Amino acid sequence: MSQDIFVVIEHLRGQVADISYVMLAAARALAQGTGGKVVAILLGHNAQELAGNFSANRVLYADHPALAEFTSEAYQVTLASLIREQSPRAVLFGHTTIGADIAGGLSVKLSLPLVSSCRTLNSNGKFVCQICGGKIMAEGDLPSPTALVTMAPGGYKLEEGQSDQAPAIETTAIPSLDDLRVTLKHYIEPEAGDVDIAKEPLLISVGRGIQTKDNIEIARELATALGGQVSASRPIVDQGWLPASCLVGKSGKHVRPKVYLALGISGAPEHVEGMNESDTIIAINTDPNAPIFNVAKYGTTADIFDLVPALTEKVKQAAGVS
Amino acid sequence: MKIAVPIKFVPDLVEELTIDPNGTALDTSWLRLIINEFDDHAVEQAILLKERGGGEVTVVAAEAEGVDDFLYTAAAKGADHLIKLTGDFGSGMNSHAAARALADLLKDSKPDLILTGVQAHNDLDGAVGPLLAELLDMPYVGYVAGVSSTNDKAIARKEYPGGIIAEMEIKLPAVLGIQAAEQPPRYVAYNRIRQVMGTSKIEERTITALDLSGGVTASRMFQPESSQRATILEGSPEEVADQMVGILKELGML
Ligand SMILES: Cc1cc2nc3c(=O)[nH]c(=O)nc-3n(C[C@H](O)[C@H](O)[C@H](O)COP(=O)(O)OP(=O)(O)OC[C@H]3O[C@@H](n4cnc5c(N)ncnc54)[C@H](O)[C@@H]3O)c2cc1C
Ligand SMILES: Nc1ncnc2c1ncn2[C@@H]1O[C@H](COP(=O)(O)O)[C@@H](O)[C@H]1O
């Protein structure tokens, strides 16, 4: 049993994922209360140098060819033996395509409780999670003695998890990684779109509130009048109404345009993660409780179909006059 | 190939959500439930796999308002077996308990592939998929958009941020957490569903005891504080449009 906080570092193809720094920052906050150390757990192959800027008291490094890139089973087997041996106070995973794949399995394998989708952890051992698409926060005490936690972004700045002093690295033993049932075949690059929405200064983004594929034309007309591009939330892309290159959010692009105009987007955390650094967010959403209004600078509860055509007309007029 | 798809009904987020008087849970009295959208994709993916490679699809749901309709719709799309779990799991349910109940149900029928939705928006203790996988000693891969399968393995397209896909090869039996099917969930006409209601049967299974261990409880639930809520533009659509033009001008976009 220790009071240390473990952080399972995420990296993809040689790049440390931002969530790793968010977790290191959260671990620091929690460790202040427990009196333990922040321990970064790095799994990889020839990957020590990734740890250079971690804000951690130490790094436990597991090196194995089967850990070169993430696969759920190899990670789980390796982490299970580490956690079992060291019984830290908490283990932080990303609430991501990496962390969420393994935290649950470890919860069952090690009979340890799991707290999911946390935004902040504080020094008196409280967690705050964001659920229901960002509409509800849940607070509670981290279960003892060892809690597994998946962390969503938004609660900490990346810099808080970074340091210019490289932490000490210890190599750790690795259990047998033979006979794995999950293997990575290869990566497939995203299809390039006609436009790179990450480079556009003005995005007119459509969500499920647009209702039909044909209605996207309303957004396109406004975009044309303003000289911007159309982007979208996930349901629009999953319906096949717009190509994946238009997707903003956790699984799509992270954008930071000068103006992000959201039409009928609720503001779920997975969407907000990809656009909350935009200079000015303007939201059009008929639900006054929509979480998008927590990140927008300006908002209106007017109906898209009443407002946007009128707005397009006025923009055209204004552009014509000036 | 035997495919099982456990599905979950979740609060419709378009409705107003309120906290119960204890302040520790959602008030469920007026809650409108809808299918977790990823489960719709999981059903679609299962049907696509069946159409390509043959097999049987079983859809499993915990009892809730609207579940029967969803199950019959799944049957109309091509699902072969419909199972409804009944029992007292209204508010006490958590993902760990759901996973144990499902593991118990599925351990005998031995599916080759279990497709869950990648996650639902209302759990505090993780998604059922990875828990279920470990309980059944199967591998798990989540965030999957697209699956192909041969006899003893599946190739899953796992999504990473920015549209990068990792093709993972997974030995069956396995659990996959579906983010999106290869094509949008298909539409079935109501008269087709009506027809199926006459011929398909929903099998009921009673869950007697729930084991909640491994889950967590909240001591407080609340709506996010609105420290930086948007300035709301008021007025008729025309007036709001005028204000927006003003803002866009100020921001140098016009
Ligand atoms: C692992 C994972 C990854 C994800 N990745 C992403 C991602 O990268 N990007 C992403 O966007 N989502 C992502 N999601 C999905 C995310 O959780 C939400 O489901 C999604 O963002 C919701 O999209 P939406 O806001 O368009 O739809 P909804 O949440 O359905 O919101 C529609 C909104 O439109 C409003 N509305 C309806 N009609 C009108 C009208 N006439 N006028 C004005 N407003 C109207 C409604 O009030 C509502 O708020 C991911 C989910 C998971 C689980
Ligand atoms: N009570 C349940 N009954 C059946 N399936 C469930 C249940 N809870 C969760 N699931 C499955 O697990 C997925 C993820 O939901 P969750 O575990 O709530 O994040 C859902 O999309 C379903 O496929």
- What spatial form of chain A do the alpha-carbon principal axes imply? elongated
Q: What is the C-level CATH assignment of the largest domain in chain A?
A: Alpha Beta
How many structurally independent domains of chain A?
2
Averaged pLDDT of chain B: 94
Helix and strand composition category of chain A: alpha/beta
Strand composition percent of chain B: 25-35%
Could you state the order of secondary-structure elements of chain A as H and E?
A: EEEHEEHEHEEEEEEEHEHEHEEH
Neighbour order of strands in the largest sheet of chain B: 9-8-7-10-6-1-4-5-11
Tell me roughly what share of residues is in helical segments of chain A. 25-40%
Distance between the termini of chain B: 59 Å
Largest interface: A-B, 103 and 87 residues
- CATH T-level topology of the largest domain in chain A: Rossmann fold
How would you characterize the overall build of this protein?
The complex is a heterodimer of chains A (322) and B (254). Chain A is α/β, with parallel strands linked by helices and 322 residues long. The model of chain A has no long low-confidence stretch (mean pLDDT 96). Chain A folds into two domains: 5-171, Rossmann fold; 197-319, TPP-binding domain (Rossmann fold, 3-Layer(aba) Sandwich). Chain A is built from seven helices and 17 strands. Chain B is α/β, with parallel strands linked by helices. Chain B contains six helices and 13 strands. Chain B has helices spanning 37-53, 67-77, 95-109, 128-135, 190-199, 237-250, and strands at residues 2-7, 9-11, 33-35, 56-62, 81-86, 113-117, 140-149, 153-159, 165-171, 174-180, 202-206, 220-222, 231-232. In chain B, the strands form two sheets. In chain B, strands 9-8-7-10-6-1-4-5-11 form a nine-stranded mixed beta sheet, sandwiched between helices. In chain B, strands 2-3 form a two-stranded antiparallel sheet. The radius of gyration of chain B is 21 Å and the shape is globular. The model of chain B has no long low-confidence stretch (mean pLDDT 94). Chains A and B meet through helix 3, strand 7, strand 8, strand 9 and strand 12 of A and helix 3, helix 4, strand 7, strand 8 and strand 9 of B. Strand 12 (182-188) of chain A pairs antiparallel with strand 9 (165-171) of chain B. The structure holds flavin-adenine dinucleotide and adenosine monophosphate (AMP). Flavin-adenine dinucleotide (FAD) sits between chains A (133, 207-209, 233-235, 247-252, 264-266, 268, 270-271, 274, 284-287, 290, 303-305) and B (13-14, 118-119, 143, 179).
